[in-house]
Amino acid sequence: MKILISGASGIVGINLLKYLKPFYELKTLNIRYQASQKVAINTDVLIHLAGKAHDLKKVSHPQDYYEANFELTKQLFDAFLNSEAKVFVFMSTVKAVADEVIGILSEDAIPNPKTHYGIAKHQAEQYILSHKLSEGKRVYILRPCMIHGPGNKGNLNLLYQLVAKGFPRPLGAFETQRSFLSLENLCY
Fold first, then answer.
1. DSSP one-letter string for the chain
2. Which of 12, 31, 175, 178 has the highest CB neighbour number within 10 Å of its CB?
């Protein structure tokens, strides 16, 4: 089986490549959104990981999220529909449903994203789900919670860095609960 992975240079992509390499023929797609670009898919599966999640330097514009997470997904999904590929896997996010959760988030929750990141991912999901698939084609939309592991760029990694420097953990004052998913478990 031939698998094409977009976003293979990101933390999930790097780890997924290592995990799948012994079992499948893998190809990577280094791509960013460009208006009117056409993509050829010559594999059995497309795993779409490319996108924009973190802006640790606070330099991104809202349009960056829509181009990377919505427009690029549309282009790749359209290419999938017009290809011989049978499976499209889209890595979305729990933020496509909610930015804050009171209680437990379930599959029945009505999406209400608040950030440009969450809104763009939700729009991409809606675009994918609005299409009728040809017989034999399948789509999977994954909405993982916070992913942690070596090399991640998110808030959890920043917290680890603070703790490693000996700063006291200011977590006693907060009553927040988070779900985490390890890179290892995600790849499995």
1. -EEEEETTTSHHHHHHHHHHTTTSEEEEE-----TT------SSEEEE-------TTS---HHHHHIIIIIHHHHHHHHHHTSS--EEEEE--GGGT-SS-SS---TTPPP---SHHHHHHHHHHHHHHTSPPPTT-EEEEE---EEESTT--SHHHHHHHHHHTTPPPGGGG------EEEHHHHH-
2. 12
* Percent of the chain topping pLDDT 90: 67
Residue written as token pair 């916070």: 146
Copy the structure tokens of residue 150: 């070596």
pTM reported for the whole predicted model: 0.88
